Amino acid sequence: MTASNSWRKTVVYTALILCLISFLLIVHAGYEYYSNNTDDKILEKAKGDAYNKASVVLENISGELNSTSLLTDGIAKELSSGKLKNDSIIRQHILDEMEGNPNIFSIVIAYSPAYYGKLHSLHLKKNGSNILEFPILYDYTNNNEETTAWYTNAMKKKCGVWNRPYFGVADGTYLIDYSTPFYLAEFKNGSEVAGVVCASHSIEGIRTQIGSLDLGNTGYGFIFSEEGLIISYPVQDYLLRNIHKLAKEDTELNLIGENISKNMTDRVVENDRTGQSSWVFYKNIRSTDWILGTALPQEEILLNKDIEQDRSIIQVMLLTFAFLFFLSLFFVSIYRYDDRSLWLLALVFSSLCILGMGIIWHFTLNESSIEVENGNIVVFDIADVETVLLNSDTNPKAFRIPTGVFIQSIEFSTSNDITMTGYVWQNISGLSVEKASPRFSFPESKESTVERDYMDEDKNIVGWRFTTILRQQFDYSRYPFDEENIWIKFWNNTSEESVLVPDFDSYDSLSPEKLIGLENSLVLEGWKPQKTFFSYRMNSYNTNFGVKDFKHRNLSELYFNVAIKRDLKSPFVSDLLPIIVVAILLFVVLLITTREEEKNQFGFKSSGVLTYCASLFFVLIVSHASLRAKIPTNCMIYLEYFYLILYMAILGVSLNSIVFASHMNIPFIDTKDNLYVKVLYWPIITGFLLIITLLNFY
């Protein structure tokens, strides 16, 4: 009795200590969660990260433009001081400055005819990787020409000035430039302007420079003038057009323009058509009337934060479950230290494990990370598309072919083969191609049939009906809680340099949850469509396919995706329910294992238990084989771990019956008519299942 009391005290004190430790850990984990991982904190932190990233970009671009003005002012001072005395010295100096400033497109030094007696200038510009001199053949002193504002503005204002973007005749491209006057002592004692120094950036160069900055997959930068002129934007066709006029055509641009006109920065812009949100930050560029801004996709930034939040919640959940179990152990040890208390503890532990698995399953069913898998860069509008193309090796002048998709049927012919039917249409305006053959192909298809179905001659739109069998590798490791991404990969068949882009204008809504491009009455047995969306992937190939000039590295290729989740009803009935029934029957077999005659109503014999276990094993083997035949995969499926645990349980129950019937006098098995083995059955099974669930999903 004394030993029993001593053991009881040990259990009580141990349970109390474990309660306190687990409670302190809950407090710590809860504090960390509420400090960092609540929805508001995650949003605030993500917004801070976005702001910091935007600030770096804004400072970089602003600093780059500021350095251009400093460079130009420096050349003007050196001219005024007499250090640059003749054309050859000036030419070499300009060449050195341009080599040291790779973002400068051209530099021109133009003399006033009043000083030089005639038009005279030195003009160097980039031509590919070279810097060459090109003469200015027009009258740059003409006040009535927009193309001469770089000279006339500086002459009039007699100070440095950023000029309105224009098409540079001598440079052959659209420019933004900074010009400043210089003075010479030999010209009216340095009191009159002797000429102008002008340094230029190409609009395309600014756009490329902003596009190369780290703003995520689809984040982008922009520059607008105070009047609303678009100086830089991902969509090349928008350059040098007015934002207020384009706002009627582009929802995203309209929302950005509204925020800027109301002088609101650090705001979330919500696009109802795409269902996406962006953080917009902007600032005025020093010494100009330009507005430099960034738009960062909120969903892309929050994606990893949401995963961290789920992990924090699960951590708090597990610590809470541990505290509840230790608390139960503490009270049971004080108030009810008998056999029934062991069953109560087993019930509490098993219930907590089952509840934990249920919560993890809930998070798994509600998470949505499929979009970022397989290198997908999801695009929702034309700005996203142009941002992606700008970051790839795509020629910025390549012709865009708007391509739309409508899927009518999807069928899994095998676990990795999908038969798909539907329509693809293309707007081939501006292309000198025949309309009798499609301008696309499905490179990943086993078989394809494409037939022309309709044509709109006025709009140059050709529609094609297709049937294709696609073979894709799916990840079934989380079965039956798996989600998959079915995709169609497009290749461009046009010989002219062009690129396929989504035909967003053909869809009423671009929100992925609205299942754009998918038949409303689509039947997909065993699956539920969740989202549809266009995306690009940067693919590289180890061959040029026999085409000498074919660029086979970092190719941006168009995909149409259908994200699906498995319908749980069928797997529950066919796969999970047999496992639950076998586990319960195996426990019943364990319960009838007894040496007490009054309890031995079923005539317990170890041979009978072995026969019964063999029958259950056969049931499991058949069910397991059926699962493997249904989902052939090289990896272990999540549900297979349930079978493995039950195999071990069957083996354990069989060995237990043999040892128990053999009177080998093993205290753990013989004590209280095999009580400890019976009590530990469900805690061991549910505990292992919880651990496996955690390892598989988190």
TrEMBL record:
The UniProt entry lists membrane topology as: Multi-pass membrane protein
InterPro entries linked to this entry? dCache_1
A UniProt-annotated Pfam family? dCache_1
> Which subcellular locations apply to this protein?
Cell membrane
* Membrane-crossing segments per the record: 12-31, 313-335, 341-361, 576-594, 609-629, 641-660, 680-697
Residue ranges of every copy of the Cache domain listed in the record: 58-294
Is Transmembrane tagged as a keyword?
Answer: yes
Query: What keywords are assigned to this protein?
Result: Cell membrane, Membrane, Transmembrane, Transmembrane helix
GO cellular component entries: plasma membrane
Q: Which domain of life is it from?
A: Archaea
The protein's name is: Cache domain-containing protein
Record the organism. Answer: Methanosarcina barkeri str. Wiesmoor
